[in-house]
Amino acid sequence: MLTLNFTEFPVLTTERLMLREHALTDAPALFKMRINEDVMRYIHRERPKTIGDIETFITAFNEGFKQGQHLAWVIALKENPDIMIGSIGYWRTNFENHRAEIGYMLHPAYWRQGIVSEALKATIDFGFKEMKLHSIQANVSPVNNASKEILLKHGFVKEAYFKEDHYFNGEFLDSEVFGLLTPNH
């Protein structure tokens, strides 16, 4: 069975980015993203009410990493690693089947610059090589064309379309699941 037992948080670097652990000092930036309707348009999660809500979220998330439940990174530019511009990571880990769901968000000021794509490549590589995942899935709103394009660019394939499979903000919404198998196959 898959386990996520890292002795310390794995910091990843790419040409332009540093992917690092969430810190409580990231709470204001994450709060701004989580209440930004452009960022959250296709992310069907309750909006935080206060920065304190985000601090609680970060603390719980970091504790979940220590318990080997999930792994998520702050996306920051190498030249300014203390400033959070987005996040990417794995959750809903299916340990028995060596599968995890990947998700990401990015501040709109950094959209269409290849940042999510660069972070996605690094986290996919880490997922297969270090986490020993067999497959990665992404659950996407069917109208989120930008996210679907990024996933397809990185080799994901559409696995399923679910009609009205979740309830958010007073309505039932559809979702699409994309998947990527380890390159060994």
Automatic annotation (TrEMBL):
Listed PROSITE patterns: GNAT
Molecular functions per Gene Ontology: acyltransferase activity, transferring groups other than amino-acyl groups
Keywords for the protein's UniProt record, in alphabetical order: Transferase
Database matches in Gene3D superfamilies: 3.40.630.30
Domain N-acetyltransferase: 17-174
Alphabetical list of CDD domains matching this protein: NAT_SF (cd04301)
InterPro entries according to UniProt: Acyl_CoA_acyltransferase (IPR016181), GNAT_dom (IPR000182), N-acetyltransferase (IPR051531)
Protein name (Swiss-Prot/TrEMBL): Ribosomal-protein-alanine N-acetyltransferase
